[in-house]
Amino acid sequence: MRPPLAVLPALLCLSLPLASSSQRVQAPSAPWKTITTDHYRIHYPANPVGDFEPFALEVASKIEGIHARVVYWVGYESPRKVDVLIRDPLLVANGSAFPLLDHPFVELWKTPPEKDSAIAHYTTWPELLVTHELTHIHHLARPQNQLRLWDKFLNLPVGPVTMKAPRWVIEGYATVIEGKITGSGRPHSAYRAAVLRQWALQGKLPDYESLNGTKGFRGGNMAYLVGSAYLEWLERQNLSDPELLRKLWKQLASKKRRNFDASFKATFGLTARDGYDRWRAETTHDALELERRMKEKNLLREGQVWTRIPGEVTDLAVSSDGTKLLARVITAEFKGLRVWDLSEDGVRKATKAKIRNDEQLDPEEVLDRKEESPEREAKWKLGRRNGFVPFSPTWGKLKDGEVFFTLRTPNEEGVLESRRFRWTPGLAPQRETYLNSAQDGIQAYTFGTHDGTWNLGEKEGSGDSIHWLTRTLSAAWNPSPTPDGKWLYYTQLTAEGCEIRKLDLSLSPLKDEPLTGDENPITPRTVLPPSDEKSELPSPVPPPSAHDYRPSETLWNGFR
Q1: Beta strand pairing status for 32-36 and 403-410?
Q2: Cα–Cα distances in Å, from 33 out to 12, 17, 91, 356, 482?
Q3: 3-class secondary-structure state, position 551
Q4: Alpha carbon distance 40, 21 (integer Å)
Q5: 536: number of Cβ within 10 Å
């Protein structure tokens, strides 16, 4: 995951503005606490206003159990005590690891992911986050074998695995281990399977050179999702040698000093690119076979495409009068809120070329094929406000046409806080003093994992029973019904972005039949996710008592 904005409290003194004592929570001048375990020092803000202690105590109670399993799988243990810094500067789910050979440290952000996030499949957020980041630390801390005089002179801060392994290996391996240890995580998620399946069906699985990239729609996720699936495939091809991945890490640190490509070939007997191309072909085969079987039995059901967006679409919501559709949209060209007028067509009309008087119509001219999905113009847009993108928009409950949204803006400490605003499309936003602005009522429609895929359903009564409304091989979420109960707008995933679709709610019930993929797929546990498995982690233990943070614990001069 991406690097943190700061390192450790003792090293932060000049990075953030000081705040008054009543406001100090995450500032370096604020009070901090430390919990010390056998292998870790866990630092967290002591101010109870931030509510960091419960998160820190859960981390402390599980971290040594996670440590033991990570070291077992990785085959190496950092000899240094690892500092763990707990913060929440941006109010988003994230973490990072810095596998410095002499002073490794980790940063954990306590805000859990949204339900539709790529990392939302877990038992507990601290458990998943700690497992992933500790894998980075111990995997990448392996030192070079048989140091030369030049190595000692350079005294590089990172090891050979960090320097040689591509991003897809580093992030993909940590994702593999999060699945093995927790029995959950991305390798067991409907999200990873949906991305692999849909990209394969559209012929859009990235080529080998693109695996490390971050550009394009969800391109940054491929190192985690595709990388982990490819590494799992490599393990399945070599079941007789369960140590093979550990051997790759040893090859990278070997005195032979090979680069990654040579080390990979020496370990697996083929190049990383050739193996990946074979994995991509097999995964595409399984996805197409699943689609063929589902179509043959007429088991698929998707709403009609209303428009396509070349990016992310969240928070879809039809207004209470049924005349407007609201969404948060993130594309390369626009980041913010869009509102479509459902009472108008909104289809962008193609401009016709003017014909001069002296021109003759060509009798052989043929009409262009009508677009499958028209591009619909939003009537109102609200982009960045003071550099920040609005999020969590909802229709107001007091006045039709009012939209309430949140901005994350920095406080006196320099960390982000949520502030609520209201906006009437066509007018400037205003700051709102109360937060209870969303429409009331129980949400009858939901999305969830059904047969290993994200689909839409309608809750039956007050229990947990769900009547499923869609069956897609992609992923469907963000359900929002029209007030008359005739249509359900929702979001569906594609390899180029998101579609907004509308489903006819008068359709007959779906057949109660499971997905019918190949009983013996070439790439099992890939285009359909495996069920969650038993966690390898021991029971949590009572954490040691916390003490006031001492700068001497983390200050590092590079010589010890």
Answers
A1: unpaired
A2: 15, 20, 21, 79, 51
A3: helix
A4: 29
A5: 16
Q: For residues 277 and 207, give the distance between their C-alpha atoms in angstroms, rounded to a whole number.
A: 8
Tokens 């440590």 found at = 67
Residues 448, 456: Cα–Cα separation, whole Å? 7
The structure tokens listed for 205 are 């699985």
- Helix/strand/coil for 200: helix
Burial class (CB in 10 A: 0-12, 13-18, 19+), 461: exposed
Instruction: Report which of 221, 157, 181, 223 is spatially closest to residue 74, judged by C-alpha positions.
Output: 181
Pairing status of strand 335-341 against strand 380-382: antiparallel
Q: How far is CA 381 from CA 57, 206, 339, in A?
A: 43, 32, 6
Residue 471 backbone zone (phi > 0: left; psi -120 to 50: alpha; other: beta): beta
What's the helix, strand, coil split of the chain in %, to 5? 30, 20, 50
Per-residue pLDDT of the chain (560 residues; tens, 9 = 90+): 544 433 454 444 433 444 455 578 999 889 999 999 999 999 999 999 999 999 999 999 999 999 999 999 999 999 999 999 999 999 999 999 999 999 999 999 999 999 999 999 999 999 999 999 999 999 999 999 998 888 888 889 999 999 999 999 999 999 999 999 999 999 999 999 999 999 999 999 999 999 999 999 999 999 999 999 999 999 999 999 999 999 999 999 999 999 999 999 999 999 999 999 999 999 999 999 999 999 999 999 999 999 999 999 999 999 999 999 999 999 999 999 999 999 876 555 544 555 566 566 778 888 887 766 678 999 999 999 989 999 999 998 877 789 999 999 998 888 999 999 999 998 888 776 544 444 444 568 999 999 899 999 998 876 678 899 999 999 999 999 999 999 999 999 999 999 999 999 999 888 888 777 778 899 999 999 999 999 999 999 999 999 999 998 887 655 44
Structure tokens at 207: 């080529």
CA angle 120, 452, 236 (to 5 degrees): 90
Q: Strand pairing partners for 533?
A: none
Q: What is the DSSP letter of 256?
A: T
Amino acid at site 404 = F
Place of tokens 């949209």: 329
Do residues 235 and 228 lie in contact, with contact meaning Cβ atoms separated by under 8 Å? Answer: no
Burial of residue 438 (number of CB atoms within 10 Å: 0-12, 13-18, 19+)? middle
For residue 65, give Cα distances in angstroms to 33, 40, 110. 22, 12, 20
Distance CA 245, CA 491 (A): 38
**Taking Cα atoms as reference points, which of 59, 69, 251 lies closest to residue 165?**
251
Classify 423 as helix, strand or coil: strand
C-alpha–C-alpha distance, residues 371 and 76, integer Å: 56
Asked if residue 319 lies in contact with residue 380, where contact means CB atoms within 8 angstroms, the answer is no
Query: 194, 121, 118: which is closest to 492 by C-alpha?
Result: 194
